[in-house]
Amino acid sequence: MEEMSFEELLNENEMNEIKRGKLFKGEVVRIASDGIWVSLEATGDALVKSDELVKNISEYKIGDPISVVVTKTNDETGINSASERRALGEKLREEIKEGAVLKTKFEKRLEKGYQVLIGNAVRAFLPGSLSMLKPTDKMPENEMDMKVISVRGRRIVVSRKDIIEEQQREIYENYKENMIVEGTVDSIKNFGAFVKLNDYVNALIPVSEISWDKNVNINEVLKIGSKVKGVIIRLDQDKKKISISLKQLKDNPWTNIEEKYPIDSVVTGIVTNIFPFGFTVKVESGVEGLVHESEVFWARRGKIKDVVSIGDKVEVKVLGINREKNRLSLSYKQVLGNPWEEIENKYNIGNVVGGKVEKVLPNGAIIKLEEGITGFVHVSELSWNFVDNVEEALNDGDNVKVKVLDIDKENQKMKLSIKQAIENPWKKVVNELKVGDYINGKVIRYAGTGAVVIVEDYNVEAFLPVKKVSYEKIEDIKNVLKIGDSLKAKVLDIEFENEEKKGNMVISVLDVIKDEERKELDEAIKKVNEDA
Questions:
Q1: 68/52 Cα distance (integer angstroms)
Q2: Where is the S1 motif domain (predicted)?
Q3: Which of 46, 140, 298, 401 gives 20 to 30 Å between its CA and that of 288?
Q4: Alpha helix locations (H) across 175-243?
């Protein structure tokens, strides 16, 4: 082997000598908690601490090739320090020129701006006035493009504002109204959604422009991060605002509305909303109509929620089309048909039928016989007994039997009777009771100069005069009898005109007392005579 000259040996030693500021290519030989050890081309290793690495320690593996710059040497300990960041920085500095656009990341806040890292290796200064951030804003964590505006030796100044303005200018100069654009959903609000057209320009999709369907749920149509296409419907370069529409990329369902839904045609739709004045029906996406409450009920207006529920599939008749408001006028009841047209085939005077109390009124009650057919029961037809308060006799929703008294087909009215649906209890009274009989009863109310007693086994009312309660003179019957008191009385009088009317009965407690006293006297006299 040919021996090397002294000059060649000197040059090789200089090449392999570890010097501060020298660039070396090496490989990772050990990974520690605070950095990595790198084997250099020359004899010896160097420690690259975590803050001098380009990546996170966890991303390095033993044997990985790496370029570093020696930052510190120590002949005594033999421990050298190096920086991967500086090595990369030396390479990057060739690209760092005024006007260059480079990937940059915020590092820390300074008094008049921010310290940023270009390519995660070279530090630069971002003036606050060029950051497009407010002093109270949080520093962005993601890497972003910035423009180099000044290079003075190792002092580099960058601008985020230049990049944002360039990207905004690119959009506002090249985009026009009616142009179809694509973006990414960035955020969703109640009033619409914001879509990123590029990193620094957002467009608004108003909620009214999401779909032709007015009841659309924006969160069901759009998802953050999803790609969408829309047409620009407003572009204001001065205010830097863009609005786009998704629905206008689809045909307007109202274009041929008269052909699709002619007047008097019957269509099927879904109930979407219920209001006090009616309900809305969607017949197709973007086409909705209103069923006014006057087109819900044939008879007395009731509760709409008792007829339909949101989500119900219903058939409706088209009554009118309003192109200006994009609204159909619909009828629910006309599809069902007017039940009063054939009322004579269903109900006759004298029939006893079942119904439900729809509404209790001060003077009676509305009874629903079937959908669209109701009748009225006057307070006088509620019971064979006196009814002072209708609400105490009936409740909304009660099932009752009623007798049809009268039918007015033209005015769609029907008179009903609850009391006549059962046999008049006074018929039983006159057949089974007579003056002088005893009855048992219970006080149910006070009336004038006496009390009203409900008679057991007959469910009729009898009148007990105050003077027929006791031998003693009673100023106020309430002091002697209480509501609910049970008593035994003697029938003094019964009046019954005919089976269509209620009768009258007068009773006496005092007469029972007298009868019992007379009986006791008779028994005492009889005993005396027997003993004589």
A1: 10
A2: 21-85, 178-247, 264-333, 350-419, 436-510
A3: 298
A4: 218-221
| Cβ-based neighbours of 114, under 8 Å, separated by 6 or more | 106, 107, 108, 125, 126, 128, 131, 139
For residue 152, the Cα-to-chain-centroid distance in whole angstroms is 61
- Confirm or reject CATH 1.10.3210.10 for domain 175-249, answering yes or no: no
Return the DSSP state at 134: -
- State pLDDT tens for residues 236-261: 888 889 999 998 888 888 888 888 99
Choose among 519, 525, 448, 441: nearest CA to 487: 441
Distance between CA atoms of residues 314 and 267, nearest Å? 8
Query: What's at 497, amino acid-wise?
Result: E
Per-residue 3-state assignment (H helix, E strand, C coil) for 375-414: EEEEHHHCCCCCCCCHHHHCCCCCEEEEEEEEEECCCCEE
- Tokens 């990546």 locate to 55
Phi, psi angles (nearest 5°) of residue 282:
-95, 120
Query: Which residues, at least 6 apart from 254, have a Cβ–Cβ distance to it below 8 Å?
Result: 212, 286, 287, 323, 326
Residue 531 has phi, psi (to 5 degrees) of -80, -15
Model confidence pLDDT, tens digit, residues 124-139 = 999 999 999 988 899 9
CATH code of the domain made up of 340-421: 2.40.50.140
User: Is the domain 93-164 a CATH 2.40.50.140 member?
Assistant: yes
Phi, psi angle pair for 171, to nearest 5°: -70, -55
Q: Mind listing the pLDDT tens digit for each residue in 323-350?
A: 878 889 999 989 988 888 888 888 999 9
Verdict on whether the full-model pTM lies above 0.70: no
